[in-house]
Write a structure and sequence with these properties.
The structure is a single chain. The chain is an alpha+beta fold. The chain is about 15% helix and about 35% strand. The chain has 10 helices and 22 strands. Helix 1 crosses helix 5. The relative contact order is 0.11.
């Protein structure tokens, strides 16, 4: 971890209070329209929400004056709905129609307006039947801000799941169980399963979403009394979140998923791209993934499939998010009769992540005096959503089109800027009939000068 003077940290803390937590605003007119909150850095914390009308200027296009003259119209409890759906997430989308059955002022054309902060926090998503790993640096402990077990989009933890298992995106189940298990601990694991959290939406493949911070294990001082912003935190909390922004230790992240047709998910959503270090498909202890299993199924703790790390590296290196089914290893059973799991340990490397759709041109560039160093590049398709706008399903369905390529490094490595076309003529066609994209992870560095 980087070390800074107390003065610097307090100064940075002030920046977080006064400038780092500005109120963001999202406003959406009444109707079947999408209301979207997002935080590029940190997670959402809803402060206020208005469904109604408080002025005669917002959402008035094409409306007669009597539909926007009532400026004292608001629905009670709107903020609770937004908080339950959005707190602790990086992105939150909902339809304004969620409030349609509650009309606080008939005849008035309304809008939904939400004000929120983006809090610096660790954001973790764990697919059902996987293990969530929360951890902090030495001398720090976990403080859970928010946790939800359910589903609120169709793309997360969706790899090769049928539509019937991902269609319910109103499965909202805020839970205190993660805080009860992990608060005050330096590290903690908890299984994302119905046996732990209950089943809020039967038949839906769910995931656990957690936002937490690491703070000093020492007793926190009293909260700042003279806080002039809408959010007041203890100095300890703010210093802890400052450390989240400047921590350059790149600790190993861990993803563990039990054997079966379940989704194994790696992500570096806040910083950088995935760099797989180790991968185990087998069993090395008698504590992981043991629920409902006999002693015979978990007793062999020296079971591992050779080459598992190569599979994970080819599929996940250089990406920000990577999902695959544990069943990718199903045909290779190294220890019959043993109930296995897939466990991957990986770094999040700071890098520029670039996606270029087929028949477009990738532009790689660095600041003056720096040159490009390509970490990883793949031409193909690994999900159904990227570069998919108005493409037929037949062109986006093959998500096992994995084609790591060195051509980007050969063309661009050592240059200050570079262009390369994402096309079959450059990279070949790894999956005929599929609309592909080029995914590149690279860094900018100063060229090495060798003194003679």
């Amino acid at each position: 971890m980087l070390c800074f003077s107390t003065t610097f940290l307090l100064a940075t803390t002030c920046l977080l209070v006064n400038a780092g937590f500005p109120l963001e605003t999202a406003t959406t007119c009444e109707g079947d329209f999408v209301h979207r909150l997002s935080c590029n850095d940190g997670v959402i914390r809803v402060q206020t929400a208005l469904y109604g009308r408080k002025d005669s200027k917002t959402c008035i296009e094409g409306r007669p004056s009597h539909q926007f003259s009532n400026t004292a119209c608001s629905l009670q409890g709107a903020v609770d709905v937004l908080k339950s759906r959005c707190d602790g997430k990086k992105v939150c989308e909902l339809s304004v129609n969620v409030f349609r059955s509650s009309d606080p002022c008939f005849g008035t054309y309304k809008y939904l307006q939400t004000k929120y902060h983006c809090l610096p926090a660790i954001h973790l998503i764990t697919c059902e039947h996987s293990v969530a790993h929360l951890h902090c640096d030495e001398g720090q402990v976990i403080s859970v801000y928010h946790a939800n077990y359910g589903r609120n989009d169709q793309t997360t933890c969706s790899y090769k799941r049928p539509a019937s298992q991902t269609g319910n995106i109103d499965c909202i189940n805020p839970t205190s169980k993660v805080a009860e298990s992990c608060d005050g601990e330096n590290s903690c694991t908890i299984v994302a399963s119905n046996s732990v959290f209950g089943d809020p939406c039967y038949g839906i493949y769910k995931y656990l979403e957690v936002a937490y911070v690491c703070q000093s294990s020492l007793s926190p001082p009293r909260p700042i009394e003279s806080c002039k912003t809408m959010l007041c935190f203890s100095t300890t909390f703010l210093l802890a979140t400052t450390c989240l922004l400047v921590n350059a230790g790149f600790p190993l992240e861990t993803a563990t998923t039990c054997d079966g047709d379940f989704v194994h998910r790696l992500s570096c959503t806040d910083i950088g791209v995935i760099s797989v270090q180790t991968a185990l498909y087998g069993r090395e202890d008698s504590k992981t993934c043991i629920e409902g299993k006999s002693l015979q199924e978990i007793s062999n703790t020296e079971c591992s499939l050779q080459g598992a790390v190569d599979v994970l590296k080819s599929r996940c290196d250089g990406k920000k998010v990577c999902e695959l089914s544990v069943n990718v290893f199903g045909s290779s059973d190294t220890c019959s009769g043993t109930y296995k799991y897939l466990q991957t340990k990986y770094d999040c490397l700071p890098a520029i992540h670039l996606i270029t759709c087929e028949h477009s041109v990738a532009h790689l560039h660095c600041d003056e005096g720096q040159v490009i160093s390509v970490y990883h590049a793949n031409y193909g398709r690994t999900d159904q959503t990227t570069c998919s706008y108005k493409r037929p399903a037949s062109q986006t369905g093959n998500i096992d089109c994995i084609y790591p390529t060195s051509k980007v490094a050969e063309s661009c490595g050592g240059k200050n800027n570079c262009t390369i076309e994402a096309s079959n003529s450059v990279f070949g066609d790894p999956c005929v009939g599929t609309y592909k994209y080029l995914e590149v992870a690279y860094v900018c560095q100063y060229p090495l000068v060798i003194n003679s």
